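Homework-ish question, so no full write-ups if that breaks the rules, but can someone show me the predicted structure for this set?
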Amino acid sequence: MVTGTVVVGLDIGGTSTRALAVTLDGERLGTGRSGGGNPTSHGANRAAGELRAALRQALTDVDPSRVRAGAIGLAGAGRLLADPAGRAVFDDAWRAAGLRCPYAVHGDALVAYASGTHSPTGTVLVAGTGAIAAQVRELRLARVADGHGWLLGDVGSGFWLGHQAVRRLLAALDAGGDPGDLGRRVLTELTGSAEVAARPRDTVDALVQTVTRRPPVELARLAPLVVSAAGTAEPVAAGLIAEAAGHLISSTSRVRPPGDASPLVLGGGLLTGQTLLAAAVHAEARQCWPDAPIRAAGDGAAAAAWLAARDLPEVTDPAALHARLVPAT
Amino acid sequence: MVTGTVVVGLDIGGTSTRALAVTLDGERLGTGRSGGGNPTSHGANRAAGELRAALRQALTDVDPSRVRAGAIGLAGAGRLLADPAGRAVFDDAWRAAGLRCPYAVHGDALVAYASGTHSPTGTVLVAGTGAIAAQVRELRLARVADGHGWLLGDVGSGFWLGHQAVRRLLAALDAGGDPGDLGRRVLTELTGSAEVAARPRDTVDALVQTVTRRPPVELARLAPLVVSAAGTAEPVAAGLIAEAAGHLISSTSRVRPPGDASPLVLGGGLLTGQTLLAAAVHAEARQCWPDAPIRAAGDGAAAAAWLAARDLPEVTDPAALHARLVPAT
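A: Not a homework solution, just the prediction itself:
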């Protein structure tokens, strides 16, 4: 057993939950991983169950009484905190892991931000299934743009890319034109065949019915088709990627003044890989904010651990602590 | 009791169902009106129930054995015809009214078209809750543009106007700006107050939650706010109306060549009133198709009756019959 102060960080996402127990020296004592647990989509009980599973793994070799602080990052944090029942479920899971220290709950955007920089002031842009941009001041979300969900916003997100790809395909079919390479990929994904019926309207009807039978947010599953088609210079896909980048930068500009030199952190599945969209957003951001460091979001659990640790009295240099706790991306 | 050939027409819409029994001379023997019965949204049983109620009223003073032909216009006609169970429910309702003649089922777009012109060839553009444009050949829908539903299309429709109005409001709130006159009307409609919270994000969250708790298609209920605000030159509303008109003309252009001189019929709640949107669409259509007669859709039940009657052997001049059966708008 190790001695010295330990902190715990958790990142609860839509597809996985990660936990980390780490000393203030940066020694990683344990990690845990469990299933997706976004409380907005799956409910607080499911989220708390995944939290418990990931925590148990991370604390296998750690005396829980040594854990002095904890933080949890998750989408919809505000709604969870506003709901006493949801909060109680999280409290129970925390205590069931043997933890007696307090813990904080942060939005996923703040945790993504902190995974890319130690600066208390800056901006974060996240694009995955949804999309949100936020100004960060004193490590709190100050102004926020978008994050309005697929029905009203998430412009430039994975949902948006998939939705637009289907709309472009429908417009091409209506006009009696060729569906194009991206269109054929979308057709195959949704109907099992790249063929257009003799009456194109039959294909249109089949597409509309297939999409409307499923939860709308599943349109985000088509985003990888758009990203990969753009990689082969497919013109419709390339256009959508450029448009998405423009929308994401426009949301960011709504909360970040021109020329701002504070860090800009890019997070979410669409912006952390080596994709054309990430490259396009990076290039546009470089033009708008030439003096700003632009960072990719990294390890959310480590960032949450850092957010938990930095308020401890023995922490005098949060920037140095960030360098020890959060792996550079 | 009147003698001579009688035909029956029905127009089953989302908000009301209308029936008409009329002689080939144009003598209106009976009309009926009942509740909305769109089978796509309400199911075939509900639609057939409204059909029966409207038919019973229209046939009060008519011997049903004198009815020689009938036609029913409704949204989602294709889906109804493809479903033997739905078709059987309609057959039962037809026979329950004492009718022994055959009847045809037409899409609402074709009936809207026939309510504005007797020409077998032309184009119809309908904008209400949804939006669709179609080329008509030999009184059948040939090519169709949009009509893809709120999730994937209906661009320029009532849904689109309401949806855009909320999105513009959210963008204004994100940017810390004034919501504007239209924004305040939308806020009041959705939250009961035109006030923006001290933290505008709280108002954003309240709006998003209010909208996402309801069926998305209810966003169409905000369309009248946009239309009326545009009437007072509110700039956001005026911009949305211009954009909607552009989208509707663009959908129409997808199925109608430039310079086409065949009739263009404008239908649906947004295009048949004296609204700014109707005026904008009319003006743009006049530019694209300067030689085309542009007509407003009229009495759908009468148009359905005409569609039923025109194939009867005693009808030698369908255009003259149209003039007798379908009131000019």
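Now go work out the reasoning yourself. Hint: The longest helix of chain B spans residues 235-255.
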